[in-house]
């Protein structure tokens, strides 16, 4: 397999979230894909298997396990494909359902927009919520009460936990083992920690123990889930365009644009650029 390396949600190779991309994984099995993802060592790698013209099966692997959907690796895949075969539309058959990717190139920079599967939202049991806060080493006083605890889905499940202050968001010191165990128990992919900085602006961090890393510098799947969360709970005026800042605390600045349609049940669009890594 030819493995490409891209940083997604950035126009600078020093920013964004790195992803491995295999544009043709035809004939490769789970063991091979997991081994490649582990060797690459990024939070996720994407593996395309061509089905027909511009339609693909796609699978995502962290260094430890397969995940149902990964936004930043999808953006990286869309950009990598467009740079080699031309901008346009791609249809990806993910484990979570069909994801449409639109790509375009302007002034030498290629951008991709993914449209998620229909989002969903679930309540968080009080006992589980307490365990989650304990694992994060947060208390209820740290929370923004205007943004209630929920578990959001747009291809993968992510608890949404809103910090009342930017300082609380900056001070990430979770119990990795406790958080990892809790997330495995409930099938969560990352934890979406957010601080609202404006009506449609958020600073975001994403602990990612299931991927074997402390934190993800840009998380497109969680961004889409956040869009669905805000729409379902009527926490933004619709339609809305959200601007998410992520990765600054890690020294890998990432910028995600999230378009939230007004109609319930419609997918959430997440846009970002990507650049090849040396």
Description:
Strand 16 (254-260) and strand 17 (269-276) form a beta hairpin. The protein is globular, with a radius of gyration of 17 Å. It is an alpha+beta fold and 278 residues long. An eight-stranded mixed barrel has the order 1-2-3-4-6-7-8-17. The protein is 24% helix and 38% strand. The longest helix has 15 residues, at 71-85. It has helices at 30-40, 71-85, 126-136, 166-170, 176-186, 220-232; strands at residues 4-8, 17-22, 44-52, 55-61, 66-67, 89-94, 97-106, 109-115, 120-122, 150-153, 157-162, 192-198, 201-208, 213-216, 240-246, 254-260, 269-276.
- The tally of beta strands, per DSSP, is 17
- The residue fraction in helices comes out at 10-25%
Shape: globular
Instruction: Provide the β-strand percentage band.
Output: 35-45%
Average pLDDT score: 96
Radius of gyration: 17 Å
> Which residues form runs of ≥5 with pLDDT under 50?
none
Question: How far is it from the N-terminal to the C-terminal residue, by CA?
Answer: 18 Å
State the oligomer: single chain
Query: Numbering strands along the chain, what is their spatial order in the largest sheet?
Result: 1-2-3-4-6-7-8-17
Structural class, by secondary structure, is: alpha+beta
Q: What is the chain-wise order of helices and strands?
A: EEHEEEHEEEEHEEHHEEEHEEE
Largest sheet: 8 strands, mixed, barrel
How many helical stretches? 6
